[in-house]
Amino acid sequence: MKLTKIAIDKFEYEGDPLKNERDVRWDDELAGLGVRVYPSGKKAFVLSYRVNGRKKMMTIGMYGALTLDQARRRARVDLGKIEAGGDPLSEKKQASSAETVEELCKYYIDKTSVEKRSSYEDQRKVRRYIVPLWGKQKIAAISHQDVIRLHAKIGESSIYEANRTLALISVLWTFAAKVGFIPRTADNPARGVEKFPEIKRGRWVKQEEMPELIKAISNCGDVHMTALFMLYLFTGCRKSELLQARWDFIDFERRELNIPKTKSGEPLHLTLPPEAIALLRSLPREVGNPHIFPGKVPGENRKNVYPIWWKIRKAAGIEDVRIHDLRRTVGSWLKQAGNETYLIQQVLNHKDPRTTARYMHFPNEQLRSPIENHSRRISELTKKSKDQA
After folding, report:
1. Lesser CB count within 10 Å: N end or C end of the chain?
2. Which of 303, 319, 335 is the last residue of a domain?
3. Does some domain include residue 59?
4. C-alpha to C-alpha distance for 114 and 303, rounded to whole angstroms
5. Backbone CA torsion sign across 169, 172, 178, 179
């Protein structure tokens, strides 16, 4: 029969409670969706499906708490997971069995590491701050004050690190409620914690610093990492986009890097200079690995490049320069060379020109001439005004 609200309201239990019989009425509109009627009169939406030939039934939610339309929407989502090879019931059981913060973190990273560009940074914060302090505690035991104290402690060393860790905690607890670790109505302990004020970074590699940086990159002892950091300087690509790039993204004839999806959500078609093409042609390819920068795990890309970058910047004498500052360097040098902002916006693949403006900086020497000319004009007009008085 086709389930309707009127029909569900009229359902009464028709099984034998002594035999613990399931009394389920199935929906003709959506295969697998049904309403289970209990001897007590309560009713629940259920979904029946098969995985590897084994029949399973999971409860979607209680009738009354969920409407029929909501139950159908949830059932369609779960059926989509099943079609893709998943098992919603097993995932639900796995999620509900996790009780500690450490288990939550592991489950979160397992579920999001593929699609999240920030996965490495998330794992680092989890290992460094969250698990050592809270790992063995129950998820629900972490309080608002606990988060305030951790945020403040990290902020003693780095306000940026503290704010990013606070954001991760908020995401973790939202995820916990979504997958059933904690009730959906549970408070997020990170909500309402005030972030430290941040000053936008304006660091970029200046002309006099570049020779030592290039020397340090060239002498880093890893041909793939030499190519990676030089390509950051040549192209202004985001760190993860270049690290995850595959050989089939490169069109050697057209001298283009074609990334299907970037942080902005749009594809990137970036013209590569001859120097970049020469670097790429010189790189050895790992058999069976489609990535330009192969990692330690067969078939995967390189993940952690921070240790080698720290050695490079120390050797170059620019220890305050971050990897992302290389992208800012490209924007600044392009602007100093007289290029229009909209062109730089296209190169850096920004949606908003205001974002591009934050990547463009000038050395004091270049700023001195415009401000001196401006002051001179003001002085001349002031003198002219006095002469006419």
Report:
1. C
2. 319
3. yes
4. 12
5. negative
Is 53 domain-assigned?
yes
Distance CA 195, CA 188 (A): 15
Question: 345: how many CB neighbours lie within 10 A of its CB?
Answer: 20
325 in Cβ contact with 201 (< 8 Å) = yes
Q: Quick one: which H or E segment has residue 25?
A: strand 23-26
How many structural domains is the chain composed of?
3
* Domain presence at residue 128: yes
Q: How does pLDDT run along the chain (389 residues), one tens digit per residue?
A: 788 888 888 998 988 877 777 899 999 889 999 999 998 889 999 999 998 888 999 998 899 888 999 999 999 998 988 888 888 887 776 655 557 999 999 999 888 765 555 577 888 899 999 999 999 999 988 999 999 999 999 999 888 899 999 999 999 999 998 888 887 888 999 999 999 987 666 777 888 888 999 999 999 999 999 999 998 888 888 888 888 899 999 999 888 888 887 666 677 778 788 888 889 999 999 999 999 999 988 899 998 888 899 999 999 998 888 888 888 888 777 776 766 655 656 665 545 555 544 544 444 444 344 444 544 554 565 555 556 55
User: Does the reported pTM lie above 0.90?
Assistant: no
233 and 326 Cβ atoms separated by less than 8 Å: yes
